[in-house]
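[Automated response] Your request has been received and processed.

Submitted sequence:
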Amino acid sequence: MSSSMLSRLNEMIWADWLWFPEGHTWADLEDGDGKVYPKPFDLWATIPIALCFLVVRQVFERIVATPLASLLGVHDSKRVYAPANPILESYFLSSSKEPSQSSVVGLSKQTDLSVRQVERWFRQRRNQDRPSKLKKFREASWRFTFYLLAFFAGLAVLIDKPWFHDLKKMWKDFPKMSLLPSQYWYYMIELGFYISLIFSVATDVKRKDFKEQIVHHIATIVLISFSWLVNYIRGGTLIMLVHDSADYLMESAKMFNYAGWRRTCNFMFTMFAAMFFITRLIILPFWIIHATMIYPLSLYPTFFGYYFFNGLMLVLQALHIFWACLILRVAIKFLPGNNIVEDERSDREEPESEEEGEAQEPNAKAQNGHVQNGHTPLNNNKTH
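Generated structure:
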């Protein structure tokens, strides 16, 4: 492709009419008169920030999270590893981790093992791949710390801004809204953190909603980046604040879950559920999305950037509705007679044998501390 073709393609992609309402251009975002505006090359700073997050996370998990886990009584139960068996291992890796009954019978004949021995081998092998409780606690501790600090830092950045109290003011002087230093760092740190989550996805605990989480992270990164490029900074900071407001409560609930602090975990989960529904299903769609999708129609004719931004907002909102359904399914277990609360996204560890599974009492007495029989009632492998 010739340089002239690349130049024309670049001009088409960044055409003023695509990203700005009529009467505004990229020239409006050129620094001048003491005002500074977002620049595309600013986003490169998020890569080293993301790498720094990965390093800081490793240090945090070793120096802070691991001692905290010990203090709260988070201990990994001893795992029984599946004995070496090439035939079963090959089937496990290439065919299915949970074979059908007919397949179990066939494998039993191939390996000269009983059906029960084959079933036990697959249970042990599945458990072998599941992350340890300590690993999950450390991951939850790291995310809890970030989301908590990010929420209160974001609140400090926005609390005195006019558009925090009157959402219509997020469009005042658009797009010629100068960039504040606090907004710059809020954006760079948030975006750097989400990029670090993409970098660490291969080693993080995988949930049943793994694909939805990836979509969420990518949509968030694109949304934050796009809002930076076209100076939707005010709306972007409000969206980030709303998301951080509930996440630290979920992570704290998981931490107490892994520690076996059942009542505390249930209380934190209740707080999280309430905050999630208020912020993600009320404030975000009826206030913020209304301010980005409906109110601008009275100010400007529609343009591609308007549809692109709000399209990403609707993707996030669809994911919020999906997760709200999961939260409701968990909340149902708070009803009388349902005193065990599990994350619907969890990939629960199975008992090593049928006898062990029968021996576990599902309604063990709860206490605000370690569960008396050593069994964690919130057997949760889990977000968002």
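Summary generated for your ticket: The radius of gyration is 25 Å. The mean pLDDT is 83.
If you did not submit this request, please reply to this message.
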